[in-house]
Design brief:
Elements lengths: L3 H15 L12 H11 L3 H7 L5 H12 L5 H12 L7 H5 L1 H16 L13 H16 L6 E5 L5 E5 L7 E5 L2 H8 L9 E3 L2 H5 L1 H4 L4
């Protein structure tokens, strides 16, 4: 099943409920900035390149600030949210990458709104949780490539996946939490992730220095 239409609808729902000036887990961004980021990401390939090119990061941020508009602009915000709910145009790369390109992105940005305290988390529809888990366990090894220990993720039902093998001389940390919390942890939103981490004392000490790594 293609999940993106549902995920865009869910994200638009929480953005609408929060309003334009609610906080998010994205540092420095209110909900209007997050909406602007999503619109730019799925409508302008140059913006996507700016995001992954440090030399152009400031240019990308200026565009987010400009498109996000002024505080309290309800009409402009509603227009942005409507564009978030719409799919990318047929010529855009995200149009043909499907779930691979956007499933985790849309899911974690929904949590960026709900976990900032304004809107309750939305439950996962049947099958969506499994799709998120599959994509997370495939993507986490790249996200955690510089993590100083091995990592095993464990869901409440006991389902587990090794997403990073330990580097030489290190052990493995076992990270337990709900699917949403494991997703936040892997994406670097660790202050908002309600997880339980188990491991040897020496490996647990590395958490202090590694918490803000992607």
């Amino acid at each position: 099943m293609a999940w993106l239409p549902l995920l865009r609808s869910r994200l638009a729902q929480v953005l609408t409920a929060a309003g334009p000036d609610a906080p998010t887990l994205c540092e420095g961004w209110r909900t209007r900035h997050l909406a602007a980021h999503l619109v730019l990401r799925q409508s302008d390939p140059v913006y996507g390149l700016d995001l992954v090119t440090p030399a152009f990061a400031e240019r990308a941020e200026r565009r987010v600030q400009w498109l996000g508009g002024a505080p309290g602009d309800e009409a402009g915000y509603a227009s942005l949210v409507a564009r978030v709910a719409a799919p990318p145009p047929p010529w855009h790369p995200l149009h043909w990458t499907g779930d691979l390109g956007d499933l985790l992105e849309l899911t974690v940005h929904t949590l960026d709104v709900t976990r900032a305290g304004q809107v309750p988390d939305l439950p996962y529809e049947s099958g969506l949780a499994d799709a998120v888990w599959v994509h997370l366990t495939r993507t986490a090894p790249a996200m955690l490539r510089t993590w100083p220990t091995g990592v095993v993720l464990v869901r409440p039902d006991g389902t587990r996946a090794r997403v990073r093998r330990p580097p030489a001389g290190a052990g493995t940390l076992v990270v337990r939490g709900t699917l949403a919390d494991l997703l936040l942890w892997c994406f670097g939103r660790r202050g908002a992730a309600d997880v339980h981490v188990e491991g040897a004392e020496a490996d647990l000490r590395t958490l202090t220095h590694a918490q803000h790594r992607p």
